[in-house]
Amino acid sequence: MNDDVRNIVLGVVAAGISAALGWLARTYLYKRKLRRKQAFFGLPENSESLLVVNRDPATAEPAVHRFDVFALLELSALIKDCGAHVQVVTQDANPQGFGERTEFCVGGPGSNRRMVAHMAAMLPGIRVNVDPEPGPDRGAFQIGTERYRMEPGITEYVLLARLTAGDRRETRPVFLFCGQRAITNQAATRYLARHHERLARKHGGNSFVLLLKVVNSQAYGPDVVELVADVTRTAQTPLPAPAPKNSHRAQ
Known about the structure:
alpha/beta, seven-stranded mixed sheet, three-stranded antiparallel sheet, 10 strands, disordered C terminus
């Protein structure tokens, strides 16, 4: 074998080794990234999860708002990426507890009974005005002593929460997307899809509650979202009971 042939063979072997090492490195990094994503969402390979669908409060028929449908589609893509399975259930047909399967619950307490139960059990520091009558406080969030009113299409708020109960190693998380309007629910699911890696690094397997602001949705849809605050501690601290109204008549 002359020198030219030997150099060609060595070059081919070196290229093959480099390609194999590169493939192994990419595979390792991909699998590590996938494991972290599965751990954050509580969705190991072939696990089961729940999508709890709310109803559109604007209609008397059992229907889902189109923005909530978009939110469910984005969550379905996240679940599929983790290699997990999903079961879709309606907000009034899910009497089971939580912790056995990862749950994604979409919609505010005015359109989702399951959300009402979760907030009462795990977020006693938050109240949502579900009065259907028009007014400045319609849909407003009270978080501790702060109140967040919406200006439809201009400034709207949504809560994004990852909650666990008991031993975090044994229970699966519940993700809540509690918005003042349907478009804000989609904004929260999109925010989670874009920022789950950063949220996992910051919070790990712990619970968190984030207040997000959706800016000018009438022009930008669900895309422009700002983080207002991490309200985890406030949301988990019970609000004082409202003072009773004075029922004495004037003499």
